[in-house]
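=== Discrete structure encoding ===
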Amino acid sequence: MKTNIQEGIILIPDFSGFTEFVFNTKLYTGEYIVRQLLSTLIDVNDQYFEISEIEGDAILFYRYDENPSYQSISKMLWKMRSAFNRKIEELSKSLSTTIDLALKFIVHYGSFSQYNIGNFRKLYGKTIVEAHQLLKNGMAEKPSYALFSNSFLESSKNRESDFNKEPLRLPEVGVIHYFENVN
């Protein structure tokens, strides 16, 4: 049996506040807003990452890369977050509503494989499960952050990021960079 195991980056942008948003927004309006926000993230990505799947409020991006760049990824996250926030402002104004969503990112690195089922490409491996587990963390104090796992940090080059603030270091997990000041 031939397997396609490679090293790569897993990036998951995820909306904070999504469950409340779904319960408090009309179906058509909510679907329109989420579609616009997800499309914005995909457009800003500019094909740097491949898309494995989109589930609700999250995109599973991946990129095979034996030498990931911390600096390149942090720049991409800032671009995504800025575009996301601009789109929220635009939609809030045009729809005369408050959109209480924020963006968090999980950046992980490791080995994974890929297989096809019909027209779908699925990723498989411990790295994928770990990235999803990192999404469900109770470590972040604010909703808008980027969590870089230890495996990504150990594999990346260009350690300087575009985050001005000192990160929250979690020895067993990695680091969390906040997009705003934490009070």
In short: The mean pLDDT is 89. The chain has five helices and eight strands.
